[in-house]
């Protein structure tokens, strides 16, 4: 019996991507084997984190790196690091930030909600989020105004499809902060494929998820300036104690990094493109929808399939089709489109051929023959 049958759980086909409410991603065999082995072993955790530090530095080209519990905790801990450095007294005081710089400047459109508001992750460190610009966008002048405060701890930027409004190049925003001596944190969550690009912006710290496309167990990866990474690790003697990475998570990160380094990216990208192209042809033959391939809006190295729904022909609108896919067995989760558009998206990266076939069969059952 599989886990779903054993515990009475819903069987899922995840065509939505590395989505936390669905368990995020699938780990490869090498990662699973390493994690299973770690569970029955003891480690000096400081040594294990040192190994992760070295591996992350080699993998990303950053000065240093570390693993924490998840990306949400990484945001809290990087903000804390910019306020406390490695000061034991300041670390012990958090979330009381008396006498510390505690303003975290954040473009209003970067105040994303990924299950909870990013501002809450900032406040958990005792810091105060300060939004600049508007939902429609921000300018360098907006950043200058926010960064002119005397109590600024850092500038927090987000690289995600959830970001709203127009803005500036991340590197330009980083440069504005650095001219004022303010460190910059970039939350890259699902951007592990682009981590080198995010580091090239000049950001002092970049956070990404280990368990999204990298396929590790749950872990947040922090890379960047060695002194600030050390300050992140030092938070384990304070608020970071509740946000530490487990032994199996760190071992899983090491195994996932090794797997990514061995990956033939050219062949992998071709495989993803072939999946989408085949899906688009087969889905496009169904009545009531038009199928196309679309690039990832943040520059990840693969495309998704988009279905544009004609409700008059399909007998339902896009939102109803999303729901109908989800309520079946197995439950098929897809990425909803914009509220004002009759569209839905399918991410096929994690899916096996049989699962893609099952999605297309369900679509053919739901749409008119």
Short description:
This protein has about 375 residues and is an alpha/beta fold. Helix content is about 40%, strand content about 15%. The chain folds into two domains: about 5-20 and about 265-365, Aspartate Aminotransferase, domain 1 (Alpha-Beta Complex), CATH 3.90.1150; about 40-260, Aspartate Aminotransferase, domain 2 (3-Layer(aba) Sandwich), CATH 3.40.640.
What would your notes on this structure say?
The chain is α/β, with parallel strands linked by helices and about 375 residues long. It folds into two domains: about 5-20 and about 265-365, Aspartate Aminotransferase, domain 1 (Alpha-Beta Complex), CATH 3.90.1150.180; about 40-260, Aspartate Aminotransferase, domain 2 (3-Layer(aba) Sandwich). Helix content is about 40%, strand content about 15%. The chain has helices spanning about 5, 30-40, 45-60, 70-85, 90-95, 120-125, 140-145, 170-180, 195-200, 225-235, 245-260, 265-285, 310-315, 320-325, 355-365; strands at about 10-15, 65-70, 105, 130, 150-160, 185, 205-210, 220-225, 290-295, 305-310, 330-335, 345. A seven-stranded mixed sheet has the order 2-8-7-6-5-3-4, sandwiched between helices. Strands 1-11-12-10-9 form a five-stranded mixed sheet. Helix 2 (about 30-40) packs antiparallel against helix 11, helix 4 packs across helix 10 (about 225-235) and helix 7 runs parallel beside helix 8. The chain is globular.
